[in-house]
Amino acid sequence: MFENLGFDYTVLRNIIDVLIVSYLIYRGLLVIKGTRAAPMLAGLAVIVLIYFLARPLGLNTIAWVLGNFLSSIILIIIVVFQDEIRRGLTKVGLQPIFGRFSKPVLSKTIEEISLACGKLSKEKLGALIVLQRDIGLDEFVEEGVYLDAHLDRKLLYSLFVKDSSLHDGAIIIDEGKIKAAGCVLPLSFNPDLDPNLGTRHRAALGLSERSDAIIVVVSEENGSISLVREGRITRNLDSAMLRDALHRLIATIESDAAGEEYSEKSRA
Q: What CA–CA distances, in Å, run from 41 to 29, 37, 81, 92?
C-alpha cells in the first residue's frame, strides 16, 4: 500500500540508521563524560584530524606513520577505553538502583551507614563501605569473610575499629545485609587522581570504574567522608551531608531509569 503511495522505504531506513547511530554516540559520550577517557578521546580525534590533513599538505611520512597507527584503530580503542567500554556494556539492561529493595529497607540502609560513618569520622577510623547495585560483586565477596549479617550501625563500627582483623578491607552491603567484610578491591591507576588520595580512596575509585556500585570512604587521616560512583568522587562530607547525598543520588538514578523506561514504552 505504501509503495502505491510512492513511499520510499530507503529514506526511512536511512533515517532510522542515522538516529540509532546518533543515539549510540550520545550514550557513549555520556559514559566517558567527566572521566579520563574524555581527554584521551580528544587526543585521538586530533591524531585523526592530522592524518586527514597530512596528505593534502604533502606530509607523506606523517601520513604513512599515522595510517599504520590508525589501521589498528579498533584494537587501539579497545585497549585504551577498556574500562569505559566495560562500564557502558554493563549498563545495558540494568534495572534501577536498589530496584529490588523496598523503600523502608533502602532508607534504613542509608540511615545506618550515615550514622556509622559519622561516628567513624569523629574518631578518625578509616572505613570502606560498598553498596552493591545491579552488578554482582561475588568475586570480591569470595576474597573476604562471608557474613550475611543484618545491617546495624554498631556492627559497622565494630568492623572498622583498629582492633578488628577486618578493618583494612571493604564491607559489601546488599539488600540491607552485610554480605562480607575484609574484601580486597581493585585499585584505580588513573594518573589524574589527586596524589594525596590514599589506598582506600583509590580502591573505591577502582571498583566504581568497574561496576555500578556506590562506595563510601572514611579517611583515617582526617576523618573526612567521601562518596564515590562511576569513577567520580565527592569529598569532605559529614554524616548529614552523606545521608542527603545518598538520597539525592538514588532519587536521581531512579528518576533517570524511570524516564528511560517510559521512553521505551512510548516507542513500543
A: 10, 6, 9, 22
